[in-house]
Structure prediction request, 238 residues.
Amino acid sequence: MTLAEQIDRTRIRIDAALTNSGRTDPVTLELAVKMRTPEICREAARCLSDLGLPVVLGHNRVQEAHATAEAIREVPGASIHLIGPLQSNKVNQALAFCDLIETVDSRDLVERLDRRCARGLPVLVQVNTSGEASKRGCRPEDVDSLIECVELAGNLRLEGFMTVGLHSDVEAEVRDSYARLREIRDRTAEQLVISESDLALSMGMSADLEWAIAEGATTVRVGTAVFGPRPASAPRHV
Prediction:
């Protein structure tokens, strides 16, 4: 099956999940391109564009975003998101190549981004809604103070929230971790006196995107369902 066919098959899954959930609002398919070559990233971006879908690619590592940015930008309207952790010494590089940071999880990172960003950078606050020690993100009880920090930052714009779902095959448990993020989004919208639809929910991946959509996801991050298993080692970029 070609890359275009895999992307279209995933789009069909998303549409079916929306129908089953009784939703009529759109869900963005964000392609998680961890460890993919510039050529594959370019092809993926073109496939999204050809299908009339938003061209959104998410990188886990800043250095990979750097290495593939030129190829991705060949497709008009392409957007590059950082969906992995951002180390303090990579902030400047991330700002040079990423259009949105989905993994803001501390006041320190907010302050570093705000100091070094000269534009209204959109960010998502990452929340560890599953409580797993292996997951990154701020604690749910720390969300309000982190949002206040983002709101006070002159160069950042709160776009919504992101989480990685509970590592489990039990639907109810996984959906609960997504429902918690939706509840945080709804409460935040009320506090900021804005519409819930103004705040994105980036949650759900290849194995559980249907469950995430049922709980209100507006963006799903899909990698293996489109590209297959990740390479055993990172490709060399020259």
User: Anything to note?
Assistant: The radius of gyration is 17 Å. The longest strand covers residues 156-162. DSSP finds nine helices and eight strands in the chain.
